[in-house]
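Researcher: I'd like a candidate sequence for this fold, 154 residues long. If you have to choose between options at a position, lean toward the conservative one.
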């Protein structure tokens, strides 16, 4: 679910979450069949309910036919971007999920919920959040996230 090339620490400063979503949904990602369609579906989901969770973290996601295989993009932003519905809900860590709408034998039916639940449970732990924030490279972040993925057993 995590790939090294989908762990990013962009140098650019984003003005709003729409710019962040556009950037992340259009990364070079072999698991996405239609980046524009995926971006649209993520924005539609975000419009129904903002995906800011807490402590500077947002988890935008979409379950869509525009995705071939499940994945998670992680972005550590240079500056916080207003993400949530309320004041102060600003994110500088973004986990972008993509899950196919269907699969053989409906194999992806609840996968996005499993990933969201697993991430939320892990992110409650301050030491894990701090490890991500303090990581100096995408490689360090990738190692942390791969350990998490193994623990989740997804």
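Model: Candidate sequence:
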């Amino acid at each position: 679910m995590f790939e090294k090339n989908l762990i990013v620490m962009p140098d650019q400063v984003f003005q709003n979450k729409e710019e962040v979503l556009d950037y992340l949904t259009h990364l070079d990602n072999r698991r996405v069949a239609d980046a524009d369609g995926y971006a649209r579906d993520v924005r539609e989901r975000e419009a129904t309910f903002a995906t800011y969770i807490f402590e500077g973290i947002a988890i935008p996601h979409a379950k869509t036919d525009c995705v071939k295989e499940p994945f998670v993009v992680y972005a550590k932003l240079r500056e916080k971007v207003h993400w949530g519905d309320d004041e102060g809900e600003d994110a500088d860590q973004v986990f972008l999920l993509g899950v196919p709408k269907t699969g053989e034998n409906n194999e992806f039916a609840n996968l996005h919920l499993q990933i969201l639940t697993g991430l939320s449970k892990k992110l409650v732990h301050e030491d894990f959040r701090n490890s991500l924030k303090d990581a100096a490279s995408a490689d360090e972040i990738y190692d942390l996230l791969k350990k998490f993925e193994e623990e989740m057993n997804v």
